[in-house]
Amino acid sequence: MKIGIVLYPTFGGSGVVATELGKALAQKGHQIHFITYSQPVRLGSFRDNIFYHEVVVSNYPLFEYQPYETELASKMVDVVEHEQLDLLHVHYAIPHASAAFMAQQILKSRGVNIPFITTLHGTDITLVGRDKSFEPVITFCLNQSNAVTAVSESLKQDTYKHFATSREIKVIPNFIHNFAEDPLVQDLERRRKYAQDDERIICHVSNFRKVKRVEDVVRVFHKINKTVKSRLLLIGDGPERYNVELLCRELGACDRVMMVGKIRDAANLMSLSDLFLLPSQTESFGLAALEAMAVGVPVISSNTGGIPEVNKQGYSGYLSEVGNVDEMAENGVKILNDDQTLNEFKKNAQLQARQFSLGAILPEYEQLYIDVINEFKSGLK
Known about the structure:
- The chain is 42% helix and 17% strand.
- The chain has 14 helices and 13 strands.
- The chain has helices at 13-27, 68-83, 96-109, 123-126, 135-144, 153-162, 188-191, 214-227, 241-251, 266-270, 287-294, 325-336, 339-353, 358-380, and strands at residues 2-6, 31-36, 50-54, 87-91, 116-120, 147-150, 169-171, 200-206, 230-236, 257-261, 275-278, 299-302, 317-320.
- The protein has a seven-stranded parallel β-sheet with strand order 3-2-1-4-5-6-7, sandwiched between helices.
């Protein structure tokens, strides 16, 4: 198959999943065409069956805000026509689904017919999508999509709750492909750059937006550190960083908190950790938690959104109500207090993550593509 994948090329979960999906499909012999405004950060070096088409955003003085959606639709038309694509798969509803519908209709007027699939990743529905100014467009584009998928059952139900869509939504969860060979083995030489041998390492990865509640991460860590000698690694950056730095100073925890900023392969650093904190206000899935579990790091998280579908209570970690930093800290101490308990949770975390392996999820997307293409062709007859 020749598949066009439209995505945000940034560090966010939707872009990471879309990029890794395209790379995996290319390895199986499918021809993948990434369409976006810059090279996806997880794409790496180019390889067989992968092509990148940049959407060049024009800079006209007339426009206060550049019309990205229109230019994206134009690029999609161009790629479909000249590369003879079989399918478009757009990740994140806004504005990719509306651009795909526009491109589909333009192509139809030129005698070219192509279906498109919309994958919902979370904030396009749970945050941005709840803005009433977007609702008519999102509802229309969901209903016009030839198929719609969501990354969790929770997100699927949220979509039905907030949008009057008649389209069946198929749940295909996010996936992981990097697993630690042995979740109990760490690179001690690298680990000693961040902590002493008698210290636990706790980590968090996010874009530091309010919804991630990174200040709660610091509060939970501070409470754990009173009982279990620990260090905190904060991976990522964003608008809440300054407030986090102020809180660290207020708590007198700056000497035990390391902010490493944005890195391309956070899993390598997470693998040095003993515990992952994800106290988010909402998560459609919790991809960062899954990445931590895959390298043998148990998770302390909130119980919101799709996180309970990933993190198994008392097995791969613990879940608490949003904002309950006391319980989160107590549960963190339970895991970290002795090596035997920690090692058990580490092994369980990776076993839980294997349910979301690339090998388990990729065939679901391939079958969906086949079904959508065949159904679409049948409808044209």
